[in-house]
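To: structure desk
From: M.T.
Subject: fold request, one chain
Message: Could you run this one when you get a chance? Sequence is below, nothing fancy, just the single chain.
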Amino acid sequence: MTALKSLMLATALALLPMIASAQAPPLGKPVFCDGTYALCIKALCQPIVGKNGAIKYANCACDVRQGWSMGPGSCASRQPVVRNGRTFLISTYSNLYNKTNQTMNCSSSSQLWAWCYGSPCVVDRADPTKTTCTCPVYTGAMYTLGGQCGNDGNDGCNSLWSAATPKADTGANKLFAAYMTLHGYPHFGSADMCPATSTGK
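Reply: Done. Structure tokens follow.
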């Protein structure tokens, strides 16, 4: 982790009382669409420091993918939109990365994480496979496919990841798998869990 990233995260942790701590909103009743979407479940994020030092949002480095995903809103409302030469879309969910990534369990009540489901994103002009999504920040226990179980140089649970509560993560996996199985579409099962020794905060 660079010195700047370390400083930003240390500042965020010091300001935890000023960070949104309510539970992330429920998934609701997702709509399944086949098209272009932003996938953030393993994204590394940077906190956005607002007025009075409050941290309510983070910018997360997500991927642009093609295929089935589930998310809020109609399929038409989730189509990429181009304005002033920039492409915008929203973050939704699929289990595409379950085969290649493990689930990191960060169980601290003061864990800082971003909830990107349904968040707005802008596609990178230089690399259309990448997008930055602006996601609300929460604290508490979470699951993420980011962090490589603490072995990717980003300090595992001490970094800010796009994530979900354990309950929401498990529910989303089951719901997505059930829909894909019902309709005969290929998908991946649940991701393996990281070794417990590598995920502590």
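Reply (cont.): The chain has one domain: 3-183. Let me know if you need anything else for the meeting.
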